[in-house]
Design goal:
CATH architecture of the largest domain: Alpha-Beta Complex
Structural class: alpha/beta
Radius of gyration: 27 Å
Bound molecules: hexanoyl-coenzyme A
CATH superfamily of the largest domain: 2-enoyl-CoA Hydratase, Chain A, domain 1
Strand content: 15-25%
Number of strands: 17
Distance between the termini: 62 Å
Oligomer: single chain
Length: 519
Amino acid sequence: MSSHEKIRQLIELREKAKLGGGEKRIEAQHNKGKYTARERIDMLFDEDSFEEYDMFITHRSTDFGLDKEKYLGDGVVTGHGTIDGRVVYIFSQDFTVMGGSLSETHAHKICKIMDQAMKVGAPIVGINDSGGARIQEGVRSLAAYAEIFQRNIMASGVIPQISAVFGPCAGGAVYSPALTDAVIMTEKTSYMFVTGPKVTKTVTGEDISDEDLGGATVHSTKSGVAHFRVEDEREGLLLIRKLLEYLPQNNLEDPVVTENTDSIERSDDILNTTIPENPNQPYDVKDIIYSIIDSKEFLEVHRHYAKNIVVGFAKFNGMPTGIVANQPNFLAGVLDIDASKKAARFVRFCDCFNVPIVTLVDVPGFLPGSQQEYGGIITNGAKLMFAYGEATVPKVTITLRKSYGGAHDVMSCKQLRGDINFAWPSAEIAVMGPKGAIEILEGKKIASITDGRERVKYIAEKEEEYREMFANPYEAAKYGLIDDIIEPRNTRFRIIRALQTLATKKDVNPPKKHCNIPL
Ligand code: HXC
């Protein structure tokens, strides 16, 4: 073969590999409203930055006639490219090749780039679109999955791992995304479940659709498995680019500070009147978040799940920062099991990638009741406390209004190594709210007042007395439990100055194999 022919052969093989399972299957993929593995990569990466690995690999199986069914690349496209000029590794499953099913070879390709991403210290993105273990390969594909899981575990907290689920992801396959930092699901075209509808029906008798069992809506609202729900793949790919902007390449680096055009001294008078006079009246904490961050750009995580707490990424003078905020607009901002898990996971995400945390507190306490107690609110609330107490990144806390009881301690209080703790004049830092306190302290006296009007008057007087005494920030300030009481309109500036001051902060935890977080 002449050198000219050799080059032509290479070009032809490349073209063949790029066709995956062939034109017909590509068309079928498009007809489902889905892009192909390579189209997704092109949309995600900076132009012409993608370098592909193992394009000519094929599986080595012979059972079930597989020796006659081989496709170059074996159902997954792997390699690296750049996003905003920074190196990112990727695997993108190709549903047009045997339904993107995972063979031993397919898994080896994924493991190869995971290993290299770890050595290089660069994030990895996984685009999942697969019928799961390649059935013809039997148990070998189970072992191959476990090879990937082990690498997901080792990479956790070392390099950012982002999973996009753009198609089926069933059986044990779901555990790879579940082990990563963020899961994105597309509406209507993706689903994740350990056991599909057919087996569910056989085993339990429950008749349920793919969508209702494991669609994007279910996982972004009920289970919390999906951190983000997007309308389509294009939105999902843009979201990956955005998310990586807030994260460093690995745990030894800091997130990149970008240019900021929003004045750091911009004060917002409306904040001085944002908190309603009536302490039981709700308000939207997101209004406060948008008012204090750079250019109103907030990337909310878990937007549809446990709405009583808001978490997400923003920037302060260009510094990527995680925000955790109780949401009085939903269940009065109470901490329940789901909210505790959601926030704990986010705090740990920030801490392992050196992203400082700003916490906005307005929490009436933990949600009472048997449902919560039986569900383990104790263990789950402890997760959030553990996450804050263990975190060594800069932590700035602002108490906006209520900060009661155990929830006060949990929400990044001073003694959980909160670095700078501010309070607004509207803050009420106390063991419990006036109503609950008076019921306990004055219960017997109240019961002894037979005249209804007198009783109501007495309760109101006592509550007011309690509020004057404890439901304010000055009692906490007196003991140094907060560092300063600030005028709300200056919050943005005070946070930026705090974060700048804390940028060189060093804090460590004692040496240990690993902690025993209350999982
Ligand atoms: C081999 C597979 C496959 C698989 C799909 N295909 N899944 N080949 N192994 N797991 C092939 C199909 O035979 C078909 O080939 C092509 O991919 C497209 O599949 P269709 O069924 O035509 O597509 P669609 O109607 O869109 O349905 C997609 C699907 C369905 C819902 C994913 O294919 C399906 O149910 N597959 C099996 C899912 C499953 O049970 N997997 C095992 C999970 S357990 P042709 O040649 O006809 O186009 C598991 C264990 C992991 O994964 C454990 C890890 C610890």
